[in-house]
Amino acid sequence: MPSAKIPKRSTDTDMTPFVDIAFLILSFFIMATKFKPPEPVEITTPGSVLSQKLPENNAVMISIDSANRVYFTVLSDRDPSKYDAIIRGINASQNLGLTPAEMANFRKTYLVGVPFGGLKQLLATDFKDQAKLSQPGIPVADTLNNQLVWWIKEAKTAFAGEKLNYLIKGDGLSKYPTFNAVVQALKKNEEFKYNLVTQLDDVPTGTALYKAEQEKK
Questions:
Q1: Number of independent structural domains in the chain
Q2: Beta partners for 52?
Q3: DSSP secondary structure letters along 179-216
Q4: For residues 209 and 57, is the Cβ–Cβ distance under 8 A?
């Protein structure tokens, strides 16, 4: 009985649809990924051996550089209107006369390190060029004119009813009086809990923490 001959077909696969899908997926991740902006101020934090994940939302970052200059940053990706509430409060309480465009620019301003008298110039500058400006830091040394108190107050008001985390990121060369002034600004707003941002170091060999970590492995 003669066998039926099956016609041979090409085993080549057209990869064009797969390439299109790959480019679509790549384009999606590029558009959806949010990159951390470069920090305008270089701060070398001291090391620590314990770590916890820092909050990325509903947080205030207070930075102190090696020259003891203080900066204020708001972290609120979920609700950008918090920025509007803070800057409106500062503008009203300090009678700064900021324009709507300048207040809108506060949303894109990564950090503030100027006295209230220099805030208008900072916010009148495009956020891409703000890194070129020399910021002398928020005045905190004078207890009667600790301007950080007002920034914390307005942030606390903007996040009323929600948990607001306070982060202090200090350079290893910064001095205690500046750190103490930051803590006093928090205390004046009846905020007594804050997190210190540090650089994670290895656990010292032979310590109780080291032995506990080894037992977990």
A1: 1
A2: none
A3: HHHHHHHHHHTT----EE--EE-PPPTTSHHHHHHHHH
A4: no
Question: Which candidate, 138, 198, 195, 196, places its Cα nearest to that of 164?
Answer: 195
pLDDT for 88-145, tens place per residue?
Answer: 999 999 999 999 999 999 999 989 999 999 999 999 999 889 988 989 999 999 888 8
Alpha-carbon distance of 205 to 200, in angstroms, equals: 15
4 belongs to a structural domain: no
CA-based radius of gyration for the chain: 26
Question: pTM of the full predicted structure?
Answer: 0.71
Give the domain extent around 182: 47-200
**Is 168 part of a structural domain of the chain?**
yes
Tens of pLDDT, residues 164-195: 999 999 888 889 999 999 999 999 999 999 98
